[in-house]
């Protein structure tokens, strides 16, 4: 048996036992707490909900614990340099072309320095619907090709319609041009990768003929706000350990996250043609979270899908405020819930099915928590009156045991499941010296504490956003989002208020109702309801620029050369933007050619 | 784009895959319901 497969099986058993043990402990504590006044139907429902919730948390914690003990080594390969051709695919959709194309130029220059640019073509695959932006794309592309001296190895095409969205965009390239390339590096518009990493990926793909897809772990860069830098820090500090856990558990059936990954074009073409699902959206229609499905289909066809966490030099950018994050999360929610239609697809591996279940639970866990909290509020009204004389002819009353300590233990345990992995990762970073890249142990420690504090405050807000998303998807209703102010990169308070006033109302009603009917519950509800009440202020405050020693990451202290190169290119381009725009005869002419 | 180099034409077939559940929740529920109804009706007949 393949060593990776046997390691994965052992790791899965360990992670599963850890999950069962932790969730079982939580369930047992809850039974003791809830059964003190007799077991009611509501208690059974709450037991199911708490077991599901803690299982989900425990599974996440188990992945990080497994990752702490896994030290992947670069594979030993028989070839020194790749010899086959790779297409670097850059799908764009209404993005700022200067932003995107400056990344392309930086990557191309890096490949030139590696002496490998002759093997790598760039294909900018535009799905842009805005005519003015499309005209700017053509203008900036002409400049890109000139500056890179890349005529014949940089291509731009714009689709007349964007059928199938990003998956359709990639499919369109593969079916028309894929045969010209052995490999395709799939990027996002905000992806940036070092030349060394791109070449190394092609080398690994060429040296391992059964490798169908190679995923890297992208680090978030260029965050400015408190929220964005928190995500950037987490992606840089915590994610590598979680990713090692995922890589180990997945074995030969690794993940595909949609970008910063290389595929074998023939394998992808033969295995990953996605049909539209029967019926109407949200559960029918085009497959939205296509990357998970494509990874499962490659594995089904016998191809190795792997996440190589030893590869650095892979970057992306992230949302800089919670509203943008929640909007993206809403799309992912619909995509993941749609996977319920695919769990029992023929021929998939158990792990691929498990990945679909995990993706669904990632969103269902929020309404499950919400239901647990609501039932906790109403449970006292359905509880039987305390019976002080349970035995006939009993002389002295029997007072029920105080179960508060068990409730507190359960609460601490659940919170522990959330923060334990982060604390363990911090200890690992101190022991291995990884904290140096984050400003030393003190700064990294402060950043970890601040990240735990802010993510705890934001958790109830995300819980409500995700619960609403799940309800919207299940009912087929799309509540939409209020338009955000344009012309400014910062989130205005009015925008935060418009997006969360419903949440403020829920927080206020919850506290008022608890104060009136169940004052004893107030103390438990404050950590959940107060962040809801303060949601607009929290979202606005965390969207503001944030400097200082907190959240220092390696990329801020010492940017990767490719990141610095791209910044230089963009600064030059931005400095000249005005004169370039003045050279454009008329915005919109270029777009007309696509009509 | 006429003014830019066209991508090399090299088609690859991308056949649509079978990805949907063969056994759906609706089928499971309808079979369960059918079984349940049949069973209870037989019980009712016996009663």
UniProtKB/TrEMBL annotation, chain A:
Bilayer disposition of the protein: Multi-pass membrane protein
Xref: SUPFAM superfamilies: Nucleotide-diphospho-sugar transferases
Residues in Glycosyltransferase 2-like domain copies: 185-377
Pathway(s) it belongs to: Glycan metabolism; osmoregulated periplasmic glucan (OPG) biosynthesis
InterPro entries reported for this sequence: Glyco_trans_2-like, Glycosyltr_2/OpgH_subfam, Nucleotide-diphossugar_trans
Keywords: Cell inner membrane, Cell membrane, Glycosyltransferase, Membrane, Transferase, Transmembrane, Transmembrane helix
Record-annotated membrane-spanning stretches: 12-35, 47-69, 360-383, 407-432, 444-465, 499-517, 524-543
Cellular component GO terms, alphabetical: plasma membrane
Cellular compartment(s): Cell inner membrane
GO MF annotation: an example: hexosyltransferase activity
Pfam families: Glyco_trans_2_3
Family statement: Belongs to the glycosyltransferase 2 family. OpgH subfamily.
NCBIfam families xref list: PRK05454.2-1, PRK05454.2-2, PRK05454.2-5
Protein name per Swiss-Prot or TrEMBL: Glucans biosynthesis glucosyltransferase H
Lineage start: Bacteria, Pseudomonadati, Pseudomonadota, Alphaproteobacteria, Hyphomicrobiales
TrEMBL record, chain B:
Lineage, top ranks: Bacteria, Pseudomonadati, Pseudomonadota, Alphaproteobacteria, Hyphomicrobiales
Source species, domain of life: Bacteria
Descriptive protein name: Uncharacterized protein
């Amino acid at each position: 048996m393949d060593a990776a497969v046997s390691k994965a099986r052992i790791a899965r058993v360990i992670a599963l036992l850890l999950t069962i043990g932790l969730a079982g402990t939580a369930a047992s504590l809850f039974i003791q707490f809830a059964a003190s006044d007799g077991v009611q139907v509501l208690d059974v429902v709450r037991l199911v909900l708490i077991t599901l919730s803690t299982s989900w948390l425990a599974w996440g914690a188990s992945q990080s614990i497994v990752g702490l003990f896994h030290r992947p080594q670069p594979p030993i390969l028989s070839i020194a340099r790749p010899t086959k051709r790779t297409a670097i695919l850059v799908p764009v959709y209404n993005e700022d072309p200067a932003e995107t194309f400056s990344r392309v130029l930086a990557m191309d220059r890096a490949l030139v320095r590696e002496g490998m640019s002759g093997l790598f073509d760039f294909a900018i695959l535009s799905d842009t619907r805005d005519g003015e932006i499309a005209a700017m794309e053509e203008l900036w592309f002409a400049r890109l090709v000139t500056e890179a001296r890349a005529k014949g190895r940089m291509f731009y095409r714009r689709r007349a319609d964007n059928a199938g969205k990003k998956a359709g965009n990639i499919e369109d390239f593969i079916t028309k041009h894929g045969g010209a390339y052995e490999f395709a590096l799939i990027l996002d518009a905000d992806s940036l990768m070092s030349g060394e990493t791109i070449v190394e990926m092609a080398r690994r793909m060429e040296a391992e003929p059964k490798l169908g897809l190679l995923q890297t772990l992208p680090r978030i860069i260029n965050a400015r706000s408190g929220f964005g830098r928190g995500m950037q820090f987490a992606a840089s500090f915590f994610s590598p350990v979680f990713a090692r856990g995922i890589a180990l558990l997945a074995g030969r059936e690794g993940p595909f996250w949609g970008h910063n990954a290389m595929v074998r074009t023939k394998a992808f073409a033969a295995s990953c043609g996605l049909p539209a699902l029967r019926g109407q959206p949200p559960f029918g229609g085009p497959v939205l979270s296509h990357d998970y499905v494509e990874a499962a289909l490659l594995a089904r066809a016998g191809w190795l899908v792997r996440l190589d966490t030893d590869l650095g030099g892979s970057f992306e950018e992230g949302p800089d405020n919670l509203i943008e994050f929640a909007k993206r999360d809403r799309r992912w929610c619909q995509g993941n819930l749609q996977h319920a239609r695919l769990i029992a697809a023929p021929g998939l591996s158990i792990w691929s099915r498990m990945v679909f279940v995990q993706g669904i639970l990632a969103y269902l866990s929020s309404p499950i928590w919400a239901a647990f909290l609501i039932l906790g509020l109403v449970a006292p009204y359905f509880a039987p009156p305390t019976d002080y004389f349970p035995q006939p002819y009993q002389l002295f009353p029997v007072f029920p045991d105080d179960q508060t300590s068990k409730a507190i233990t359960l609460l601490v345990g659940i919170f522990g499941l959330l923060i334990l992995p982060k604390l363990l990762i911090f200890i690992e970073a101190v022991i291995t010296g990884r904290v140096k890249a984050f400003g030393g142990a003190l700064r990294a420690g402060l950043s970890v504490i601040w990240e735990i504090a802010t993510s705890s405050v934001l958790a109830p807000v995300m819980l409500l956003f995700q619960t609403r998303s799940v309800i919207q998807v299940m009912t087929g209703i799309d509540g939409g989002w209020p338009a955000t102010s344009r012309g400014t990169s910062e989130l205005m308070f009015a925008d935060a208020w418009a997006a969360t006033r419903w949440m403020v109302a829920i927080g206020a009603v919850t506290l008022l109702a608890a104060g009136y009917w169940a004052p004893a519950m107030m103390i438990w509800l404050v950590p959940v309801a107060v962040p809801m009440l303060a949601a607009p202020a929290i979202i606005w405050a965390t969207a503001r620029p944030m400097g200082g020693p907190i959240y220092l990451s390696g990329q801020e202290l010492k940017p990767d050369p490719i990141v610095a190169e791209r910044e230089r290119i963009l600064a030059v381009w931005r400095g000249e933007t005005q004169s370039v725009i003045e050279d454009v005869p008329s915005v919109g002419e270029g777009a007309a050619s696509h009509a | 784009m006429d003014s830019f180099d066209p991508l090399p034409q090299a088609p690859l077939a991308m056949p649509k895959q079978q990805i949907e559940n063969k056994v759906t929740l609706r089928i499971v529920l309808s079979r369960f319901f059918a079984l349940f109804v049949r069973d209870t009706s037989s019980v009712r007949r016996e009663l």
